Amino acid sequence: MRSTCSLYIDTGYLLASAARRVTGTSLRSGIHVEYRRLIDSLIALVQDQSGLPLLRVHWYDSAHNGVPDYQQQRIGELAKVKLRLGRVGYEGQQKGVDLRIGLDLVTHARNKTSDVFFLVTGDDDLTEAVEEAQVHGVQVVLLAVPVNGDRPHGVSKHLLRAVDDLQVVDGAIIDDAALKVELDAAPAAAVPAPAVPAPKPGPSPRDLATSRPIATPAKAPAPVLAYTSSTGADSYVAAEYQRTPCEETVPEALTPDLIDRIAEQVVNSFLTSSDENAKAALAHSRPSIPRDLDRALLLDACEAIDVYDLPEQARFRLRNRFWDRHDALSAAGR
Predict the structure, then answer these.
(1) Dihedral sign, CA of 238, 244, 249, 250?
(2) What are the NYN domain coordinates in residue numbering (predicted)?
(3) Pairing mode, if any, of strands 54-63 and 81-88?
C-alpha cells in the first residue's frame, strides 16, 4: 500500500485560533473564512512537510442534532474532505466532537490507513488518543495556529508532550483565508417616549375609614442566577444557600486591567460583527452570556496568562466585567 498522510482538523480550535490572530479575541463570529482556500493551503502544507500525498482531510465540527448547515455541507463536498459532526447540546455546548476525533485516530492507526497523522487542535482531552495511535506505529504531528508572532495558540502541555512533533502553521495561510468582520452600524431608530397614563382617582374618605389591611403571605426569596464551572452553563441557587461565587484565589497575572482588556476585546468584536437582531438577542439573554461569547472570554484569559483552566472566581470576574464593558461600549455607539 502506498504511503500517505492524513489531516485531522478540530474546527473549533482552528477557527477560534484564527479569530484570535485576526481580531485579538477567540470569538469565531468575528471572522469570515474562505474555507476552500484554507483547506487547500493546509493540504499543501502537510504534503510538503511529510513528503507524502494526502489520503484525506477529516473535518470535525458540531451541528444542531448532528445535521450539517449550509456551510458544512459545502465543506463536506470538497475533494478529499470527510465531514465528521458532533452535536450541539441543549445549553449550546459541543458534544461528541473530541470523542469522534479520538476514535478516528485510534481506528485509523490500527488499520494503518496512513503513516503520518497531522492533527490541528490544542485539546488536552486528545492526549490519550494520540498515545494509543502511536502504539500502532504512526507518527502524530501537531499543527498549531500562531498568535503574537510565532507563538502557538492554546496548546495543552500534556498534548504537546505526547505528540511526535509540533509544527506552527505559516501565519500567512490564516491571514489569507480569514478576514475580520465589520458591519456598518445602522443608525438607531427613534424610540417614541412612552405615554404617561392619567392618574387614577385616590380613595375616598369613606373608603379609607372602612378599609382593612389585608395580610399577604411572605414570599420566599427569589433564586439568583449563578454560573457553574462548565463554560457558559448556568444554574439557579436558592437564596438561603447564596454566598460569594467562589473563594478560590484569582491568579495574580489576571489583573483587573487585563480582565477589562479581555472583556472589551470580546464585546467589541461581537458588536462590530453582529447585526441588530444578534445584539437584541444578547441583551435578552442577560445576565447569562451566550456560550460562544463565554468561551471566547475564557480562552482569551487562559491564553493571556498561559494556563489551561481558570478558577471559578476568575470566571466570575470576567463575566461580570463583560456586561460592564458591554454597557459602556453600547452607550458609546459601538
Answers:
(1) positive
(2) 33-166
(3) parallel
**Count of Cβ atoms closer than 10 Å to residue 41 Cβ:** 17
pLDDT digits (tens, 9 = 90+) for 279-312: 999 989 888 888 889 888 888 888 888 887 788 8
pTM of the model: 0.74
d(CA 316, CA 307): 17
Nearest to 15 by CA among 2, 4, 31: 31
- How many domains does the chain divide into? 2
Cell readout for 295 is 468561551
Query: Nearest-5° angle of CA 21, CA 13, CA 77?
Result: 105
Residue 238 within any structural domain of the chain: yes
240-256 pLDDT, tens digit per residue, is 434 444 445 777 888 88
pLDDT of residue 200: 54
Strand (E) positions, the chain?
5-10, 31-33, 54-63, 81-88, 94-95, 116-120, 139-144, 146-147, 151-152, 165-168, 178-180, 224-227, 234-237
Query: Based on the domain organization, do 30 and 175 belong to the same domain?
Result: yes
